[in-house]
């Protein structure tokens, strides 16, 4: 007996289906949420202004005193001032609203 002369491309497509499903799951559960979080953080950093209270990624609490294009100067306890990169700001309170701790 000879093998059935059917459409052999159907079996190739069904073997790729699990791989495609895994890619879709990774996109919706890992890549897309990370892109959304990055976009929100960028928007937050762009909206910083003088007087906002911030927490850096190193855990330093301070108040924004001056702003430049890529850096900000924050005032910490005791009238000390630190120049940090905007990307080093992790959390903050804009216009006196409380810090978000999600």
What is the CATH topology classification name of the largest domain? SH3 type barrels
Strand coverage percent: 25-35%
Question: Element order, helices and strands?
Answer: HEEEEE
Using DSSP, what is the number of strands?
A: 5
Cα-atom radius of gyration: 25 Å
Instruction: Write down the overall mean pLDDT.
Output: 83
How is the biggest beta sheet arranged?
A: 5 strands, antiparallel
Q: What gap, in angstroms, lies between the N and C termini? A: 66 Å
Unreliable stretches: none
| Number of H- or I-type helical stretches | 1
Write a compact overview of the structure shown.
The protein is of the alpha+beta class and 102 residues long.
Explained architecture:
The protein has two domains: 39 residues; 48 residues, SH3 type barrels (Roll), CATH 2.30.30. It has a five-stranded antiparallel β-sheet with strand order 4-3-2-1-5. The longest helix has 38 residues. The radius of gyration is 25 Å and the shape is rod-shaped. The chain has one helix and five strands. It has 102 residues and is of the alpha+beta class. A hairpin with a 3-residue loop joins strand 2 and strand 3. The N and C termini lie far apart (66 Å). It is 37% helix and 27% strand.
């Amino acid at each position: 007996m000879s093998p059935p002369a059917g459409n052999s491309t159907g079996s190739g497509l069904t073997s790729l289906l699990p791989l495609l499903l895994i890619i879709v799951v990774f996109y919706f559960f890992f890549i897309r949420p990370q892109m959304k979080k990055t976009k929100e953080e960028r928007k937050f950093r762009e909206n910083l202004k003088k007087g906002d209270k911030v927490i850096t990624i190193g855990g330093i609490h301070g108040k924004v005193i001056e702003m430049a294009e890529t850096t900000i100067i924050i005032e910490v306890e005791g009238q000390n001032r630190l120049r940090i990169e905007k990307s080093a700001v992790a959390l903050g309170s804009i216009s006196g609203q409380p810090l978000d701790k999600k």
